[in-house]
Design a protein that fits this description.
297 residues; alpha/beta; TIM Barrel; 8-stranded parallel β-barrel; two-stranded antiparallel ribbon; 13 helices; 10 strands
Length: 297
């Protein structure tokens, strides 16, 4: 698999990473996670991205990795210690949460700790940045980052405090391509793409429930009506689009399905989309996308 440099962190990473949300929310077993992580590492994925609020994701990863910890980079996120949507941005809470994440992951440090979608206002107050800088000084994390979208992500890039930005980039989510990615590249900030295949929402047999983030992607894609969506290799095209976006170092893909990593690696190994195909997807977005189609947090 292609190796890429994650901005000024200097970390050399595979173009695809393992996303840990599904295994937590869908309550995968340790045996399943051990099999998935083994397949992922064997396929060349060496970034594992999780968060404190993904139910038991951190514990599962910590137990499943075992001796293979040295083969990967572990990224996690903080700010929702009692579950997603229940943010606590106090410095003491963030540091306590990071320490708890290390215990769960069975490691003495993570390679990257990220603020998990706090608001622009919270960022401007500065306490959250101070907390992550303290964690880095204490050796709890090698690098610090921000995970999120929209104006808050723009502020995270502008403030200069973060080594990385994790943000939504896909055929159904392209705000970042003009809002944050060019400035991130200019400042040497490593970019991690989340939801790089838009949850393959076009393949769902029926509309997702309103309120699920898949629903918004499903709605957008029906209007975008990209010609490639009817092709057998549509998922590969979508993934290659994200990996073709300038500045993207690694795309995080989650799954509970054995064998999926090999498929994704085969798609990524085909390289960037042909320039004309990439340009056609961008042109269709420019033609159809509404200003309200902001990055999905």
């Amino acid at each position: 698999m292609e190796r890429r440099r994650l901005g000024r962190t200097g970390m050399d990473v595979g173009a695809l990473g393992f996303g840990g949300s599904e295994i937590g929310y869908e309550r995968a077993s340790v045996a399943t996670v051990s099999r998935l992580l083994g397949q992922a590492l064997d396929a060349g994925l060496d970034v594992i991205d999780t968060a404190e609020c993904y139910e038991r994701s951190e514990e599962l990863i910590g137990e499943a990795l075992g001796a293979r910890r040295r083969e990967c980079r572990i990224f996690t996120k903080c700010g929702h210690p009692r579950g997603w949507g229940r943010g606590d941005w106090r410095k003491a809470s963030l540091l306590s949460s990071i320490e708890r994440s290390l215990e769960r992951l069975r490691t003495d440090h993570v390679d990257l700790v990220q603020l998990h979608s706090c608001s622009e206002d919270v960022l401007r107050r500065g306490e959250v940045i101070e907390a992550l800088e303290t964690a880095r000084r204490r050796g709890l994390a090698r690098f610090i980052g921000y995970s999120g979208d929209g104006a808050a992500a723009r502020r995270a890039v502008e403030c200069g405090a973060f080594d990385t930005l994790q943000t939504s980039v896909s055929v159904a989510d392209q705000e970042a391509l003009h809002l944050t990615l060019p400035l991130a590249a200019e400042r040497g900030i490593g970019v991690i793409a989340k939801r790089p295949i838009a949850n393959a929402a076009w393949l769902l047999g029926k509309p997702p429930s309103r309120g699920d983030y898949e629903h918004e992607y499903w709605r957008r894609l029906r209007l975008l009506d990209y010609p490639f969506l009817s092709r057998e290799d549509s998922v590969a095209v979508a993934l290659r689009f994200t990996l073709s976006v300038p500045g993207v170092a690694v795309a995080i893909v989650g799954t509970r399905k054995p064998g999926r990593f090999e498929e994704n690696v085969r798609a990524a190994s085909r390289g960037p989309l042909p320039p004309a195909e990439f340009a056609a997807i961008r042109a269709r977005w420019s033609e159809v996308a509404d200003p309200s189609w902001t990055g999905q947090v």
